[in-house]
Specification:
By secondary structure, the protein is an alpha/beta fold. Helices cover 53% and strands 9% of the residues. The chain has two domains: 129 residues, Rossmann fold, CATH 3.40.50.1010; 48 residues, no CATH class. It has a five-stranded parallel beta sheet, with helices on both faces. The termini are far apart.
């Protein structure tokens, strides 16, 4: 792919691991607000860590991966491995994420680990690292109605158990998304 006309973000394993954060990021990409991408290495990292925590859920995790791949065309970045050796980051184990971002024509890397992706290193590649709270808030700022609709649709699928808007807000706070929590608390009647 030569690049996406939409804003493109590489989703790091740390934002795909927590179900709620993954669900929100997927809903926003389903709504067409941005193009989500990741690599097989990123996918393996979050699923391996989730399987360690929930070994009896292998089938459900595999199903989630398949659904994500089907729902997000061109989500997997390939052919980036040759870039890895030439990249320098504070944690060499994160070079594959930056390589995927470069090869995947990403505008941003969405990660909780901002310190692992220094702005001066990413700027050379015209990429920025964004905390998921900042990234989600940017989507609300740019596409408020579509983003709120995506969150409302997400909540509508939660039936076992259903969660109120207030429960969602509390869960967002616990997942390190305080700005998103405040924003959705104020818009709770819309979601």
């Amino acid at each position: 792919m030569a690049g996406s006309a939409r804003f493109t973000a590489i989703l790091d394993a740390c934002v795909l691991y927590p179900q709620l954060v993954r669900d929100i990021l997927m809903r926003l990409t389903f709504a067409g607000l941005y193009h989500a991408r990741w690599s097989a290495t990123i996918e393996n990292e979050w699923t391996r860590n989730l399987l360690e925590k929930m070994p009896g859920q292998a089938r459900a995790i595999e199903r989630t991966v398949l659904l994500m791949r089907e729902a997000v065309p061109d989500c997997l970045v390939v052919g980036h491995e040759s870039l890895i050796p030439g990249l320098e980051l504070p944690d060499p184990d994160d070079r594959h994420v930056l390589a995927a971002a470069i090869a995947g024509h990403a505008d941003a890397i969405v990660t909780y680990n901002l310190k692992d992706f220094p702005a001066e290193v990413l700027a050379v590649h015209h990429i920025e690292a964004q905390h998921p709270d900042e990234f989600i808030m940017n989507q609300f700022e740019l596409h408020e109605l579509a983003a709120l609709t995506a969150i409302k649709e997400m909540r509508a699928t939660w039936t076992h158990p259903a969660r109120s808007a207030e429960e969602l807000v509390k869960a967002l706070e616990l997942r390190g998304l305080p700005q998103t929590a405040v924003y959705l608390a104020e818009a709770s009647k819309l979601i």
